[in-house]
From TrEMBL, chains A, B:
It comes from Paraphaeosphaeria minitans. GO terms for molecular function: D-malate dehydrogenase (decarboxylating) (NAD+) activity; magnesium ion binding; NAD binding. Residues 8-356 form the Isopropylmalate dehydrogenase-like domain. This is D-malate dehydrogenase (decarboxylating). The lineage of its organism: Eukaryota, Fungi, Dikarya, Ascomycota, Pezizomycotina. Transmembrane segments: none annotated.
């Protein structure tokens, strides 16, 4: 990808703590842009939120696709107010639609133990791996239905759909990513012993691709998802690049960050590698209604997502500065600065985000 | 259930370390039977193993159902030799067939931090919860297929199937179990924000049942499976009874035991509560080809499964003695007795199993 001169970014705060962390994310992005002379054009949208839904009866306007297609990327907070709008309505009306309709078929999620954050594991070792998650098909199929509704005979069916194209492209992406890393180690999440059709297919394609394309230089292994989660806790430093289906990638990319202390720090890139559609960058945490309004949401996931966005477009210096700023502030670990989820006392979204912003400048 | 005078038990060691831990499980069961005057009739079968498959081209003889129906319970080791027989063939030809055809619709799995075993968590707190797993339907449906095989257009589909009957009975079982516990707390695993048909149905049935049947005395909550796995690591002592679909229960019942130090200790009851068919008791760990033949497999999962079997049939004293024996030996934690997965040095399957046997007698 050729690094563009400027970036047009659609900003969507969404709901809950999405609205609270977004301002800090933007301040850090602007700080990096100012320092490194990048032109960022930031346009905020109020759609893709439950507030919008309550006003308009839909999560987004009809022309959302063409509106957002004009942007290089989407900088996204979080969606969901489950007490008011069912989660599957709000999510399938926004985030999951973006992922599918903008063909953001790679979800890329770093899992890294940052300096200064206490891990819940007594011997975490050096946790530093990438989760590569299939992001458009699989278990998140949205097809299926209900029959004999409201009776004893009621049956509900949902289909997991895997396509050759969908599986191969995410496996190839993960294989290439593993090749670019010093450890050259790829671990695939499966469940082919129990889920007897789609999961053996996933295994089969990994075997075929790694043979066909000559990935002999890589160490490739696989774990069933049940024991995989056990290994994440028992020995997380064994992982380098991890690849999984939509659901398994979802699970591993919450569990992994939990082992690094808090999921509040984890970012996520929803990437359309060809750049045909905008990619989307967001924190892994959701709208977190339980802590919303308290001003204590961890802004690091949002800021790190912005860092990934700059990195994605090749703005290496700016991205590097943002990452160093995050690491430095966390390493200092001042308890009046860092948020409670990381062991802070009086630290807030504002204090932590502002401290990172200052380090960037 | 009326406690029977004697038990007829079908013994199926299976493959790999299943064959190594089974003898110790049997010795401990026999010790408990001798001490408390129970009549146990133990009949060993070589089918439901990959060795049997290699000889006969099938995992089990045609009349397996009628043969095993004559027993009160099945005491089961582990199945799988993935280098020789694909896992979905061996498992769907044995264990998963038992669960479905003997309508063992409850999988019951304790997750408890035993004295003396080091947890990988630095602050595990008091981990002590039950996983109640749906065991016959859901994601383990075995229906679906492949189209456009071998071409670019290849599509593979697997259907998750939930029935009103299947969902209600496992939720009711879990609700009742929660009611019998001091904390009276049930947590349901869901993923209704992403898996948009079956999982909202699961949530809906839990809501309906807990309202209909007046479970106001219980604390009932739910987590999406991704954040659920994170909470298991960050705060496992919050859980009391956990209920999940076939797949989610599978994941939580490996991850939970990992947080208690090793999945080698965890047992599993596959229960047909009506007693129309035999229930099956097994360790949670599988055949573990990687450590097979070394004599170091942890026998506690197998022994504890035997303990659950006696408990299930109401042999409380014998079951109590077995549990105390396990706890005492682990609490002593002699490194020449306990197996390496629990921090032992020269301990083996034999030394640990024999120590527990001696304590029972
Ligand atoms: C071996 C496998 C099919 C099985 C399952 O997935 O149910 C196992 O993991 C378990 O938990 O009993
Ligand atoms: C909010 C939810 C639908 C989403 C997902 O399951 O993908 C989230 O958990 C994530 O990981 O991005």
């Amino acid at each position: 990808m050729i690094t563009p001169q400027s970036l047009r970014i659609a900003v969507i705060p969404g709901d809950g703590i999405g609205e609270e962390v977004m301002p800090l994310g933007l301040r850090c992005l602007k700080a990096a842009a100012a320092k490194f002379g990048l032109a960022l054009e930031l346009t905020e949208f109020e759609f893709a939120s439950c507030d919008y839904y309550l006003k308009h009866g839909d999560m987004m306007p009809e022309d959302w696709h063409s509106t957002l297609s004009a942007y290089d990327a989407i900088y996204f907070g979080a969606v969901g107010m489950p007490d008011i709008v069912p989660d599957h309505v709000s999510l399938w009306g926004s985030l999951l639609k973006f992922r599918r309709d903008f063909d953001q078929y790679i979800s890329l999620r770093p899992c890294r133990l940052l300096p200064g954050i206490p891990s819940p594991l007594s011997n975490p070792g050096d946790i530093d791996f990438w989760v590569v998650r299939e992001n458009t098909e699989g278990e998140y199929s949205s097809i299926g239905g209900k029959i004999f509704e409201g009776t004893e005979r009621e049956v509900v069916i949902q289909e997991t759909v895997m396509t050759r194209i969908g599986v191969d492209r995410v496996l190839n992406y993960a294989l290439n990513l593993a090749r670019s890393r010093p450890k050259k180690h790829l671990t695939s999440a499966t469940k082919s012993n129990g889920i007897s059709i789609t999961m053996p297919y996933w295994d089969e394609r990994l075997k075929a691709l790694s043979a066909e394309r000559g990935y002999d230089d890589l160490k490739i292994d696989k774990f069933h998802i049940d024991i995989f989660t056990a290994w994440i806790v028992l020995n997380p430093s064994q992982f380098d690049v991890v690849v999984g289906s939509n659901l398994f990638g979802d699970i591993l990319s919450d569990l992994g960050p939990a082992c690094t202390g808090t999921i509040g720090v984890a970012p996520s890139g929803n990437i359309n590698p060809e750049g045909k559609f905008p990619s989307l960058f967001e924190p892994v945490h959701g709208s977190a209604p339980d802590i919303c309004g308290k001003g204590i949401a961890n802004p690091v996931g949002m800021i790190w997502a912005g860092q990934m966005m700059l990195q994605h477009f090749g703005f290496k210096d700016a991205a590097g500065a943002m990452m160093r700023a995050i690491e430095d502030v966390l390493a200092e670990g001042a308890s009046h600065i860092i948020t409670p989820d990381m062991g802070g006392s009086t630290g807030t979204t504002e204090s932590l985000g502002a401290a990172i912003e200052r380090k960037i400048l």
